[in-house]
Amino acid sequence: MNIFLPVPVRTPKAHPSKEEMRCPSPELARMHLIKGKDAIDRYLAKHIKGLSKQEAAAYRNSYKKNICIDMLRQGYHKSFAELFTLIEHWNALREAAGPGSAIWLEKSLAEQPDKLDQLHHFLTRAEAALRSEFYDEVYCNQLNLAYCFNKPEDRWLRNYFYEQSYKTAQLIKIDGGRREAEAHSNMGLVYEEQGQFLKAAEHYEAFYQLTVGRIWKDDTGKTLTSLACEHLWRIYTLLADKMLGNKEHQQAIRTLIKALEMAKEAGNKKMEGEAAYCLGLAYHTVGEEKTAIEKLNTYLEISKLLGDFAGLGRAYQAIAQVLVSLGEVEEAIKYMEKFMVITNKVNLGPSLVDACTFLGNIYNQKGNYSKACEYFDQAFATANSLSDWALVNETKVYCGIGKAHNMMLKYNSHTEAADYANIKYLVAWKENRSDMFTDPFPVGKTVVMKRISAALSLWLSHFSCIVLLNYLLSLILLD
């Protein structure tokens, strides 16, 4: 739905009928005797009742040319120059992109009457206001133009008018700085979309400084100070993420602390929880595990308060990872089991895969390979149900690792026995590679029993010898 008033569109007059254009033959016969275009135009205007020179030109010219002529006739030379510059800039962008690009297939700005009408309407109004030094009205018209071009293919036009409105806002001195604050917010958005986070942060900080302590509100009823805090929380988080990628850990932590402060000032619990979560992960990265657990517990409590099951699951998983790094594996397993309960409750498929993989890795490191295989198999089944083939392939690898370790334990038990029966068993397994190691000690048990029997027999034989010797000695002594 268009938020602006409908733009008045100049429509040419209806084309006259042939009857209206019919002229006496003698008069028309004399036309070829008149030399020069101007003379012909004067003759037609005087003797022929039909289209004027301007009306005929309106039909012959393109829509862009008619718009430009109309601007010049009304004295809006600055608007004409600006429109012409924008059209040329679009053409330059198209040529730079080259054939086959997305912009190459689009219509030129000069060939889109709706956009030309918007530009004509608001540019001329802005120029008229500028002549009278009504800068607030100039700002509003430039901002309206930015709102007109909010589609992805028109972002360059939107950014241009945001920049123009920002320059105009510096000239407004009667509103306490509100227009300037709004302009800083808009420029922050432009730089954020372009990935220039430092410049975006500068504009958002200026926005915050101009609005702090004010009761200004936007159209939704939210205070501009709260909006500035939200912008700063977001941009600080993005900056910190970039810093962590560049191994600037301490700088990232300082930036995330500022993000947490902004979230608290905004009064938004969800944002505060997210900021605490990011800060906890950053502390975990630098090895400050106790501080990391403290921040992650803050996120856990906020998630419980908000009834955010997804956030609750993320908190459990993050705390478990920190506990594993501290060597508290059993405690980590408890948190992951809580996490699995949450994922089953709210049907978080990808998170359930992560949980099962994490638990499988823990049990794999502990040497409990059968338990690890159970969790890896569950991760594989969940990935299959999601039809996420990249995740399926990843969990396949984990399943292979778990089964290989589980089989290796049983394989080693036969190898270490190193007797005829066990070697025969291994040779038979290698011939068909089936899962013959369901019972890790089917032959080993027999071997052990044989060895116990042999040892017992040997002990009994030694005992018998001792008894016999004692008996012989007693006979000798009796003699």
Automatic annotation (TrEMBL):
Chief site of localization: cytoplasm
Keywords for the protein's UniProt record, in alphabetical order: Cytoplasm, Membrane, Repeat, TPR repeat, Transmembrane, Transmembrane helix
GO biological process: one example: cilium movement
Alphabetical list of Gene3D superfamilies matching this protein: Tetratricopeptide repeat domain
Domain of life: Eukaryota
Residue windows of the TPR repeats: 181-214, 353-386
Subcellular location: Cytoplasm
UniProt cross-references to InterPro entries, sorted A to Z: Bac_ResReg_Asp_Phosphatase, TPR-like_helical_dom_sf, TPR_rpt
SUPFAM superfamilies tied to this protein: TPR-like
Species for this entry: Podarcis muralis
Name of the protein: Tetratricopeptide repeat protein 29
Pfam name, any one: TPR_8
Span of the signal peptide: none
